[in-house]
């Protein structure tokens, strides 16, 4: 009798496992993906085009199916259970792969394609990339859209792996993550800029004048020192006065046009402003190290024709004629110098 009951229990457990794999409504997985992404029933419903009551019903089914609460109330709202956290990334990857399989697009034709790519970067590179990229899109792929997001260094490896972000454009070193690949786009150097008519700066900018001026520092992380400050320490020179620290690249040149401050910033950033605003551009009066800009993607999309085309578009937009790639785990270490 005991052995008979054990066989029944094992059979039921096996059958339940089979239901987990084969008997799940695909719409429930789409709903689960939205719930794990938003951690909010109403927002998840809006994300996939369901009513709130329909999403609540789907959550109930998922809880019963997976034998887990999935979402529970926390101090700031709903939070994911450990089981839900475990499911989030694999589920997203699976749905992306399924979507790609069902699209059945072995070839990518830019001229007739209709899709959207998501690129994560900072505003500086957006200013250097987007005008040329949009010009290329208009000529070669009028049906392709771009969505640009602010890059978060702690999350982009996961977003690249899941396919939520197609490409990340950053300065090295790349955040650790399995399967990430990278390509160097260009090496950037620095220039100094003040407003035209500056009372202390005429035709040249010497070191003594430079150190007397008030400085604007672009600091994406909001703290720390810039490349200029490290050079001053190395050379035993007095520190400069940082009168303004900003986290955004595109604000800094505008501040300089209305003040007597000096800004040391990437050359491509200043080139985007110098033609339209009254600015004087000078080489730095001391050697400031250059830095590299790279594009990063996940190896899952290495051979995907659409992703290959996107990477080529970005490379061409910044003047790279022969794009290549390498695994980030074997790449050389490069300088991290976005602040100045």
TrEMBL record:
The keyword Transcription regulation applies. SUPFAM superfamilies: Periplasmic binding protein-like II, Winged helix' DNA-binding domain. Belongs to the LysR transcriptional regulatory family. Gene3D superfamilies: Periplasmic binding protein-like II, Winged helix-like DNA-binding domain superfamily/Winged helix DNA-binding domain. This is LysR family transcriptional regulator. Keywords: DNA-binding, Transcription, Transcription regulation. PANTHER family: HTH-TYPE TRANSCRIPTIONAL REGULATOR LEUO-RELATED, TRANSCRIPTIONAL REGULATORY PROTEIN. Residues 24-81 form the HTH lysR-type domain.
